[in-house]
Amino acid sequence: MRVARLAAALLLALSPALAFAQSAPDTASKADDPDANESVTSRVPLDEIRRFVGVYNAVRAAYVDPVDDKKLMQSAVRGLLLELDPHSTYFDKEDAEAFDEQTNGAYEGIGVEVLQQKDNTLKVVSPIDGTPAARAGLQAGDLIVAIDGTPINSIDASEPLRGKAGSAVVLTIARGEQKPFDVSVMRETIRVTSVRSKMLEPGYGYIRISTFQADTGADFQKQLNQLQSQAGGKLKGLVLDLRSNPGGLLTAAVQVADDLLEKGGIVSTRGRISISDAKFDATPGDLLKGAPLVVLADAGSASASEVLAGALRDNGRARVVGSRTFGKGSVQTVLPLDNGDSVKLTTARYYTPSGRSIQATGILPDVELAPDPADVPSDLPASLSDYSEAKLPGHLRGDDEAVGSKAGVVLPGDAPIQSALQELKHPGSVAAAQAAAKAKAKPVSAEVKPAEAAKPAAATPEAKPVEEEKPL
Question: In 3D, which of 242, 383, 239 has the Cα closest to residue 300?
Fold first, then answer.
C-alpha cells in the first residue's frame, strides 16, 4: 500500500545519514582534502562531538561505580532522542522486536499503551480492551512509578512489562491525588482483537476499533458486512467507537477511512524533507452505502484514530461526538540500525483534509459529552486536565496550538454510546437536550420592582461578539 511505500522511501532517504553517523569518526580522520573536511564539518559539529567524548570519558574514568560502555552509549542515545519529543525513542533489538509484535497484534505482556516521561515514569495512554491491564483496572492517565517494587527511575522502564505468559508483575500506580498503590497483573499472550461489533437497535449498528494493527482493515470490512447482513442488506446508521484508541498503523486507519468514503482526501503528511510529504485520497466505494455515521471519540483517542475521525468529519461523512481528542498529530518512522537496534523518529506532522494540524490541538467534537458519574470509578480523578499531547513535556509544537486550551476527558461506559445513537437517529437532538437542561437549571432572575423599571437604563459600551472556538 502507499503508506508502506512511503515508509520504505523515507528509510531509503535517511539511510545515508544513518550510515554516515555510524562511520563519521573514520571518515573525518581519513579526509585529507580541505573541501572534504569542510563538508564533513558542515554535516557533523565536531566541537560538539569532542565535548560529548570528553563527558563520556569522564564518566568512564571517574564515576563512583564502573559503567559498561554499551550501557553508557545506549543511555546517551536514548537521552538524545528523549529531548526531541515524547514519541522519538531508541529501541534495542528486543524492544524493536516487541514493537513489531505489537503492531502485528500478538505479543507477550500486559496489554497497555504507555508513554515514557522525562523522569522515566510511564504514563498510561490506555489499556487495550480485553487484556490483563484492562481487567486489572489500569486507566488512561495512570502513572506507573515502580515495577516489582523497584522505582522506575532505576530500571529500563518498559522492559519488565514484557515477559513470559503466565508470569506476574506488580505495578505501583500513581493516580491523581491518591496515595500510590500496587496492582498485580498476570502476563498473557496478547492477541488483540482490534474490531468488535453489535447491533444497538434494529438497523443501527455499532463498531468498536480499539487499536489499528495489521489486520484491522480486513476485520473492519468483515464486521461491517456482518452488520449489513443482520440489517437485511443495508444499515440505517452506524456508530463508530474510537474512544481510548491510542492509534497504531496509519495504513489501517487510511483503509477504514477509504471504506467509508466515496471520494475526498483522507490525510496528508508534511515533514522537513520532501520524501516525508504525502497525501492519501479515497477511492470510490462506500461500504456503508451512504448511511449516516457518527464517530465517538474522547481524550484517549490518539494518532491514527484522530486521522480517521478528522477524515470522516472534514469530508462531511460523519459527525464527531464525545470529547476533545489527545492531539498526537505526528508521524513516527522506525529506522533500523546495523546492530539490530532501531530508532523511532518523528519525521512529519499529520494534516486533516481541510489542511488543519492535529498536533497538540486534537479533534474538537461537533457534540461534546461529559462522563456519566455512574460510569466513572470513584477513585478516578475528577479531571484529567493534564491528559493531552499539549501537556506532555517537550511535545512537538502544533501549528494551531493555543496556550491554556482545555484538554478533553475520558468517556467510559455505555452512556456515550447511547448519546451517539441518539445523535445518529436525530442529528442535533443531543445538543438541544443539553441546552434545554442547562436553561432549566439556570436560576430565575429576581422580579424587577416598578420604581426600578421606571429608571432609564444606564448607557453601556457596545457589546462585541466573542469568537467561538471552532471544531477542527
Answer: 242
